[in-house]
Write a structure and sequence with these properties.
single chain; about 900 residues; alpha+beta; 5 domains; ten-stranded mixed beta sheet; six-stranded mixed barrel; 28 helices; 25 strands
Length: about 900
């Protein structure tokens, strides 16, 4: 140290002592000046600029001033915590690279956690924005759909409504309704529900404008004002410009005029979480819309959900006992006699009514996305842990450079707890800055994720506004991250010896290296778990995306024709559909076209139990198969291969012998893989016998309802021989384009169908887009897990690089001596990489063991791959090893380029 530099520091300390520490002796001032000079020189050697090194020394001097002042009475000093924050900010700004890396890592980690938790909160935890949501309950014990929800017939609801003493209040509704608000031409749909008049009273919701439904509005055909509607706040703004004169205005729904009587509050989205209600229609108006196809008086149409409000102080169990007390009466009064096989009636009579808590509402997408969201939540938590380990290593590296500063503080009388508090304050400030940016990341990314969940047929809506759960979660994560990466540096500071830390080779290096190594092993292990999970989920999506569907979705346009608003007698619908088909087939650019009520990958299905002549003996539950009605040309339209026999022709109509075509899965299940052509098949235990059908063809297997489902046994019958099915209000036309994009045919197809009947409501969707939408869940989970798996790999590699670089810096003298004695650069590289190999190998072994155990929790999300797939495990380990080798090779190569003379001279 030059005498001139030391004199400058002594002058600076004396000036400060004259102002703050008048009681200090000159010997203490001189000793402090030596400490500051050493600190300044050490910072320069560690790569800091002259300005940053000087500022660091001045911060230490100011801190020493505070320590002296803190010994005085409380009335003479300021707030220590405020000072800690100021010092923490200056220390972080003095190392901008470290601060930027740490803040970005935290912003991404905390933001991802907050974004996913916001979705989990909105979908699974947040109560409905209604009055006393914890008194709401859902009635169960009806018909169970594919999503696990119970539905009830209108007859059952009427019996419940006649017994108002059971509950404080109740209502029934049917979700998933889509109303066409266009007056003609291409449809413009809004999402809505049919609901009874008690919905708003039961939920405790008062309209923002106008009024809610009354009992008179819920009468068949409507009340004094005719069919009425309550619209959402969003629809009010979008369609009516938020004008207050909206009440009393007319709007057409499926070409039926409705009077708007009210507007819902802006935060109310209905009883279904994940779906926004644009418009609510009284149940009594359903016959006015559906006409002869009305389900309101049906005893065998299961389409209503029921929600009740419990009486004040009443428990769920007590309410369940009450409804079970009247269950026999309700079941007997609502027997669907004549429409069910008699052997199914005992099951109907014995099914028990149950009430389930409904504070969080009902949800279709909760069952579909609940488990994937929790899986992604675990993934992002692990990523945050890896980021914290990385930041802890960065902080430990800074701790080595700050040993001089800490020794000065201790020499001046600072307690070790005082240093710990200062280091934890720095960590907390860093976490708070990262969390602030993370909230912005969370807001943007959560909205983007919700958009990814929506499809053409399902608009997903989730209330993502922050509530106390989200704020508490973010606050907790911020505090936890500060502790996770701040504890190790804080205890490192607490272990500094006042005199030894000033030396160039101070004590504690080995301790830091061992802690850093342990953190890197943990990072590698967690990264293995994440990379394995990401690989499994990405491979699942890849298998589904490249799966042989059994049909060719390219160039196929799905056209849905709805006759609900058309004044067509049910018996005349099939001729209209067939004429529309003929008109479309005559268009230039159309290669093939066909009709069917169900198209592949639509999520819809119709099933029966069948008996095949000379078939295998099967249990009753093994006789089920899907069924579809199609026109000639259906298999050619979809590119489905005819294996044997013949396809349907125009002669297969009413009056001709009844025929059917089955797929290979049907032949395997009913005939043990034998050729089914020539066998007869009939519906088992049909209420209305259809007679035997001769199997005239065998087609290849094809995906039916969902891509994930096993290839189901399927039976096809001609549309013209199933006139009852063809009388439905909605039928689908599948059109294969000759060469161009199928969407380009939409206008000409609409004109051709309009020439047959302009009252048909049309919707268009390319089949490829429909298949793509069916993989939304798998695509989203694969995308998120792949991104975070790659991020984990990057963070682990950076952590390994940092530890290896630090080890090389600490061993510079040793390496220089080895090279001076003749060691080759290659041996130095091997020396460094041996340590890297040990860390990576340990982390991979630990991570592989954890992955083997944890893979069971993602098994339900996988397709076509085992949870403990060896190839995935080996491949993930190889990727981690390659990343570790690259991260370790860079500092190893730098070590091999060390000049021995320079190192020995500096040491």
């Amino acid at each position: 140290m030059r005498d001139r530099d030391l004199r400058q520091w002594k002058a600076l300390v004396r000036e400060h002592a004259n102002r703050e520490w008048r009681e200090l002796s000159l010997e203490v001032v001189d000793e402090l000046a030596c400490h500051l000079a050493e600190l300044h020189a050490a910072a320069i050697r560690d790569g800091a600029s002259e300005a940053d090194a000087r500022q660091m020394a001045l911060d230490t001097l100011n801190a020493a001033s505070f320590l002296q002042l803190s010994k005085r009475p409380r009335s003479r000093r300021g707030g220590g915590y405020v000072h800690d924050i100021r010092v923490a900010m200056r220390q972080l700004i003095a190392t901008p690279v470290v601060m930027i890396v740490a803040v970005l890592s935290l912003a991404l980690g905390i933001g991802a956690n907050t974004a996913i938790f916001s979705l989990v909160d909105s979908l699974l935890l947040r109560p409905l924005p209604v009055k006393d949501p914890h008194r709401l309950a859902l009635l169960q014990g009806g018909n169970i759909d594919s999503a696990g929800r119970s539905s009830f017939t209108p007859a059952i609801w009427e019996e419940l409504r006649r017994r108002p003493q059971l509950f404080d209040s109740a209502f029934a509704w049917a979700d998933g309704a889509r109303f066409n608000i266009a007056n003609g031409g291409v449809a413009e749909f809004v999402d809505g529900i049919w609901t009874t008049s008690g919905m708003f009273d039961t939920l405790g919701i008062a309209p923002l404008v106008g009024r809610a439904f009354t009992g008179a509005d819920d009468q068949p055909g409507g009340g004094p004002d005719g069919p009425v509607a309550v619209i959402s706040y969003a629809l009010w703004q979008r369609r009516f410009g938020a004008t207050l004169d909206v009440v009393g205005r007319r709007m057409t729904l499926d070409r039926i005029p409705f009077t708007v009587v009210g507007v819902m509050p802006p935060d109310f989205f209905g009883p279904m979480v994940g779906q926004r209600v644009d418009i609510a229609i009284p149940m009594g108006a359903e016959p006015a819309v559906h006409g002869k196809d009305s389900l309101l008086g049906s005893r065998d149409s299961w389409w209503l959900s029921v929600m009740v409000r419990l009486k004040p102080g009443e428990s769920i169990d007590a309410a369940t006992e009450a409804v079970r007390g009247v269950q026999p009466e309700i079941r007997e009064a609502t027997l669907p006699v004549g429409s069910w096989p008699s052997q199914d009636l005992p099951k109907y009579l014995s099914a028990k009514f149950t009430l389930a808590p409904a504070a969080t509402g009902d949800s279709l997408i909760r069952a579909r996305y609940g488990r994937p969201l929790l899986t992604v939540m675990v993934v992002v938590v692990l990523v945050l842990l890896i980021a914290c380990a990385n930041i802890a290593n960065l902080q430990l590296a800074r701790a080595t450079a700050r040993r001089h500063e800490w020794s000065v503080r201790l020499a001046l009388g600072a307690s070790r707890w005082r240093l710990v508090r200062l280091l934890l304050t720095e960590s907390l400030v860093l976490s708070m800055v990262g969390a602030t940016l993370g909230l912005l990341v969370a807001r943007w990314s959560s909205q983007l994720l919700v958009q990814q969940l929506s499809t053409q047929n399902l608009t997903v809506f989730l209330d993502l506004s922050p509530d106390w759960r989200v704020l508490a979660f973010t606050t907790g994560v911020t505090a936890a991250t500060a502790l996770l990466f701040g504890v190790a540096p804080a205890f490192r500071a607490a272990g500094v010896a006042p005199m030894e830390a000033i030396k160039e080779q101070g004590r504690g290096v080995g301790g830091r290296a061992s802690v850093a190594s342990a953190l890197v092993v943990a990072q590698v292990a967690l990264s293995v778990v994440l990379v394995v999970a990401a690989a499994l989920l990405v491979r699942t999506f890849s298998k589904l995306a490249t799966l042989n569907l059994g049909f060719d979705p390219a160039r196929v346009l799905v056209v849905t024709m709805n006759a609900q608003s058309a004044t067509i007698e049910p018996s005349q619908r099939l001729p209209i559909y067939e004429r529309a088909l003929d008109a479309v087939q005559a268009l230039p650019g159309v290669e093939r076209a066909a009709l069917s009520p169900i198209v592949p990958v639509s999520g819809r299905m119709s099933a029966n139990r069948f008996v095949v002549s000379d078939g295998m003996p099967l249990a009753d539950n093994q006789r089920s198969a899907f069924r579809n009605q199609v026109t000639p040309g259906f298999f050619e339209t979809y590119g489905q291969r005819l294996v044997s026999g013949r396809a349907f022709t125009g002669r297969d109509r009413d009056g001709a012998p009844r025929v059917a075509i089955v797929n290979e899965a049907f032949a395997r299940q009913f005939l043990d893989g034998g050729n089914p052509v020539g066998h007869t098949v009939r519906v088992a235990r049909a209420v209305t016998p259809e007679g035997d059908m001769e199997i005239v063809g065998l087609v290849s297997d094809a995906v039916y309802r969902r891509v994930r489902d096993p290839l189901p046994p399927t039976l096809y019958t001609p549309v013209a021989q199933t006139t009852a099915g063809a009388a439905t209000t909605e039928y689908t036309m599948s059109v294969r384009a000759a060469s161009e994009s199928p969407a380009q045919l939409s206008r000409s197809i609409a004109d051709a169908i309009g020439g047959v009947n302009r009252d048909l409501t049309l919707t268009f969707r390319p089949l490829a887009e429909q298949v793509n939408a069916s993989l939304t869940q798998e695509r989203l989970v694969a995308m998120l897990s792949g991104f975070f798996g790659a991020l984990a790999l990057l963070l682990a590699s950076l952590g390994l690089y940092g530890v290896t670089s630090y080890a090389v810096t600490c061993q510079q003298t040793e390496i220089g001596i080895r090279m001076a004695l003749g060691a080759a650069p290659g041996s130095v590289v091997r020396l460094v990489l041996s340590r890297v190999t040990m860390l990576v190998a340990t982390g991979v072994v630990v991570g592989a063991g954890v992955s083997m155990w944890a893979s069971q929790f993602v098994s339900t999300l996988l397709y076509g791959i085992e949870p403990r797939d060896p190839a995935t495990l080996v491949g993930s380990a190889a990727v981690l090893a390659a990343g570790g080798a690259l991260a370790g090779w860079l500092p190893a190569y730098r070590a091999s380029r060390i000049h021995p003379a320079q190192v020995l001279r500096d040491s």
